Amino acid sequence: MTGPTTEAVRVRSATPVDHAGITAIYNHYVETSNVTFDIRPFSPVERAPWFTQFRTAGPHRLFVAVRDGTVLGWASSTRLRPKPAYDRSVETTVYLDPDATGRGLGRLLYDRLLGELAAAGVHRAYAVIALPNPVSVAFHERYGYRRVGLFHEVGYKFERYWDVAWYERPFQSAVLS
């Protein structure tokens, strides 16, 4: 087996020192895949406003998987929609360095993220998955996400249209205060 394993990997809340690594991983997917509908890479400075939405507690979190100071992947939960009535629902996502896939890092990240969301009183989590993406679909379904919607040809990237499926995961948690 080559590449990183979960040995010596630490999952923790992201800090500003991680922003360049998080951005580099994200940019890989911007440039090479349909899993995000951003169409041009970002510099860490351009991505800075995105980082400001995360907290060290509560429903809006950003976690990194780090080994020897290198960010191998990240998972986040963001506001689903900007109106206050949506505050008990979040959108979740996970991205891994392409050399770190298939080693259990996504599970480490989502275990931590979903545990924190349950503790924070989140009612529903949503994953938005550009199709086809059988790996992401299977991953999310293992965590109890179920498909609740499909938008046909909603995104245009790489000279074609892409469908997007919405997946939902309920939590058995208390109401946020």
Which runs of at least 5 residues are low in confidence (pLDDT < 50)?
none
How many E-type strands? Answer: 7
Task: Provide the β-strand percentage band.
Answer: 25-35%
CA radius of gyration is: 16 Å
The tally of helices reads: 4
Going by helix content, strand content and strand pairing, the class is: alpha+beta
Mean pLDDT: 93
| Lateral arrangement of strands in the main beta sheet | 1-2-3-4-5-7-6
What is the ordering of alpha helices and beta strands? EHHEEEHEHEE
- Major sheet: size, sense and barrel closure? 7 strands, mixed
Envelope shape: globular
Q: Into which percent range does the helicity of residues fall? A: 25-40%
Secondary-structure map:
Blueprint: E1 10-13, H1 19-32, H2 44-51, E2 62-67, E3 70-79, E4 89-96, H3 105-119, E5 124-131, H4 134-142, E6 146-157, E7 160-170
Parallel strand pairs: 4-5
Antiparallel strand pairs: 1-2, 2-3, 3-4, 5-7, 6-7
Features:
26% helix, globular, 177 residues, 4 helices, alpha+beta, seven-stranded mixed β-sheet, single chain
Overview of this protein structure:
The chain has 177 residues and is of the alpha+beta class. It contains 4 helices and 7 strands, in the order βααβββαβαββ. The chain has helices spanning 19-32, 44-51, 105-119, 134-142; strands at residues 10-13, 62-67, 70-79, 89-96, 124-131, 146-157, 160-170. The protein has a 7-stranded mixed beta sheet, with helices on both faces. Strand 6 and strand 7 (160-170) form a beta hairpin. Helix 1 packs across helix 2. The longest helix has 15 residues, at 105-119. The protein is globular, with a radius of gyration of 16 Å. The termini are far apart. The mean pLDDT is 93.
